[in-house]
Design goal:
Length: about 375
């Protein structure tokens, strides 16, 4: 069986960020061929990301990106490419241009289309979080929000979100949205006993250094706290600012940075940590939060802008205002060994309901359902 993929990001970007994940496009190896249609002029070689296709043979089709004037012709160009590939299913990783291309081709060729939602696509939310820095993208995203996304939502065969927050925008168009959380595998995160007394507690925070995920308040929170170290994993435009902040506060001995860790190695850093913390303004639940749950870490998270509580982790996390004082007070509470242990156990109990193994099976079953129908 063949699957056509319209990815959310350029493949070289996925590779550079260390986000190459086993069977990501081929749950339970149900496909024999994976064809990725990339809107780049040049991509990396398939062997660098073959693991994402599992046992399937991986093909990459580089088609370049259209402009506003060439979009109508581009849709037909993509349809002809898909027709030549002859896939059994088409999958798009966003409802924007990729989703619209997938739906157009699928409807014309009578091929089922599955769209997954991985972000908050509401431009008004992004304007609030990103401010003036969003200006270069705002017209493109408004075009997508008004024209492309409604088309994708109405005519895709099936849609699922990787958390509950994303599908809310879709509910005005349909009510059959599923949730399949991002895959984090239980087998990767082996249990490590952390009950022994420690002089220093290690806080880990993972994610891109961007507006909406700014770690500034985490850094400021530990300035006057003894017995804590902070590890920030990720790259992004705010990284130079955060490094300068650490230098200005003379916290080089307490705060360290790692730009990139491959997905296959990330669990080792969680297992060496005692607390997970993140300043996150967007809704939903991030992959690092699920990884922290798998590692049995207590979670400290800022209150999201459009929800009363963080999704999935609200019953066992410490939710704070996104301020140095908010995080500082939470870290002080977690000096209590018993509390850290209890919150970590509750986190893992929740994780057991959404392990990567279970989510992979759920996604594979969804593909099988599409094939049968």
């Amino acid at each position: 069986m063949r699957l056509v993929i319209f990815p959310n990001d350029p493949l070289y970007s996925i590779y550079e960020k260390g986000e190459v994940k086993i069977r990501y496009w081929n749950p339970n190896n149900i496909f024999s061929e994976i064809h990725v249609i990339s809107l780049c002029d040049s991509e990396l070689s398939p062997d660098k990301i073959q693991i994402m296709a599992g046992s399937a043979k991986l093909f990459i089709h580089e088609v370049g990106r259209p402009n506003y004037f060439s979009i109508p012709f581009f849709f037909n160009k993509i349809k002809k490419l898909v027709e030549n590939i002859k896939p059994d299913i088409i999958r798009a990783h966003n409802p924007s241009l990729m989703g619209a291309l997938a739906v157009f081709s699928g409807n014309k060729l009578n091929i089922p289309v599955l769209i997954s939602l991985h972000a908050d696509y509401n431009p008004w939310h992004n304007i609030k979080i990103l401010g003036l820095s969003y200006f270069p993208r705002v017209f493109r995203d408004l075009f997508s929000f008004i024209f492309l996304e409604p088309y994708s939502y109405k005519y895709a065969t099936k849609i699922f979100g990787v958390y509950n927050f994303g599908p809310r925008e879709v509910q005005k168009y349909r009510d059959d949205i599923l949730v399949i959380y991002n895959r984090v595998y239980d087998t990767q995160f082996k249990f490590i006993d952390k009950s022994s007394k420690k002089d220093t507690l290690k806080i880990i925070s993972v994610g891109r250094h961007i507006l909406g995920k700014n770690s500034e308040n985490l850094i400021k929170a530990i300035k006057d706290l003894d017995g804590f170290e902070l590890l920030l994993i990720g790259d992004g435009p705010l990284l130079p600012y955060l490094k300068k902040l650490v230098s200005n506060l003379k916290l080089e001995h307490k705060v360290s940075f790692i730009l990139k860790v491959d997905n296959s190695e990330i669990h080792k850093l969680y297992q060496k940590s005692d607390i997970f913390a993140i300043a996150l303004e967007y809704g939903g639940v991030s992959i690092p939060e699920i990884e922290a749950m798998a590692a049995r870490l207590p979670i400290v998270i800022s209150k999201p802008l459009w929800d009363n509580d963080p999704e999935l982790v609200n019953k066992f996390s410490i939710t704070v205002e996104n301020s140095p004082a908010g995080f500082r007070d939470a870290f002080k509470k977690l000096l209590d060994d018993k509390l850290r242990s209890e919150l970590g156990k509750e986190a893992y109990k929740q994780f057991e309901t959404i392990t990567g193994e279970k989510m992979e099976l759920r996604e594979a079953d969804l593909y099988k359902e599409l094939l049968l129908n």
